[in-house]
Amino acid sequence: MSLYRSFETERLILKPTSEEDAAFIFELLNTPKWKKFIGDRNVNTIEEAKNYIQIKFRPQLKRLGYSTYTVIRKTDHAKMGICGLYDREGIEGIDIGFAFLSAYEHMGYAFEAAHELKRAGIEEFGIASLKAITAKENVSSQKLLIKLGFIFKKLVILPNSEEELLLYEFTNEHSIK
């Protein structure tokens, strides 16, 4: 049993991503949309995916109690995507992010998962303001962020990058929709 909190919605289980999710993470990180909108992480084997989880996801989970969550459909236990709360370099505050396999897009799963993590971030982890970043071309993510109550704030460039990203923000003064 995990020391860290998992979450449930009507249709989903969100559990901290662990090494047992390596095959799924390998698949997700190598989808065309991930590479286009998030970037190539040079994860070329399941073993490299396991290392990626250990290096990129687990340290923050141990430090803050939250990080990346694997999104699992309750009906068949399909691993569909990830959603997480991130202490990301170059972003002041905590950033919410999500990515799903294309077979599970446009079904409301990303909204359901992100809405639950937004709620948990505010109510359970005491995060007063959440940020989100997305590529200018990623209109689907922009629409989802707006539906979640985020407001566009400005363009940003993260460290070690040249790409301008859109920065959105949700503050606790807004009601959780």
UniProtKB/TrEMBL annotation:
SUPFAM superfamilies: Acyl-CoA N-acyltransferases (Nat). This is N-acetyltransferase. PANTHER family: GNAT FAMILY, PUTATIVE (AFU_ORTHOLOGUE AFUA_3G00765)-RELATED-RELATED (PTHR43792), N-ACETYLTRANSFERASE DOMAIN-CONTAINING PROTEIN (PTHR43792:SF1). Keywords: Transferase. It holds the Pfam family Acetyltransf_3. Gene3D superfamilies: 3.40.630.30. GO terms for molecular function: acyltransferase activity, transferring groups other than amino-acyl groups. Residues 11-150 form the N-acetyltransferase domain.
